[in-house]
Amino acid sequence: MDLLKEWQQLHQQKFNYSPIEKETIMKAIYQESNSTISTLKKRLKFKLYWILFFLVAGGIWMLCSLDRPELLMIQGLIMTIYMIGLVVMGLIYRKMDTHLDFTDQTLPLMKKQNQLITNALNFEKYWGLAVYPIAAFIGLLISNHYKGKSISAFVQDPNFLLLALVLIVIMTPILYFISNKMNQSAYGKLTDTLQNNIRRMEDLA
Questions:
Q1: What is the pLDDT of residue 14?
Q2: Residue 23 pLDDT more than 90?
């Protein structure tokens, strides 16, 4: 069934469908939304796997850096940042439903799932805005540290701080743009579909 066509016909006929016809359309919308919500949750799960991967990799990196106390402090900060991301995204993931039943509560549940995935993507956006400058600064610190230079000496060097500031100004918008593009590619069509289906269900209710 072409849901968009049915929805357009619904407006043209000024809601003159019989209760049976409305229920048929609503069931079709519900089935499509169920599939969409399931896919959104799976893709959010992939994000959690990526965070876990970085945490495991970070843990191994820390074990290999036990003789570098300055580096361990920075690694601890990185791990904390990723742990915050894992906890917040994990809580949102657990609140999402994999399957919705077709009841009088279907529309409120669809709205809830839409809000949850929106919250997850917004959190990642703001988390990124906070993390990208830190990541650029830390990346510069670590690269110089592995050249045999002291981290504490670098943070007191005006030239280094100026270079770090320039790097942050350049890298933060680039990373933010790439992240948004990736999320738009992975979630954009799915969230649009879910939001359109919510509007259709509201029109039919």
A1: 44
A2: no
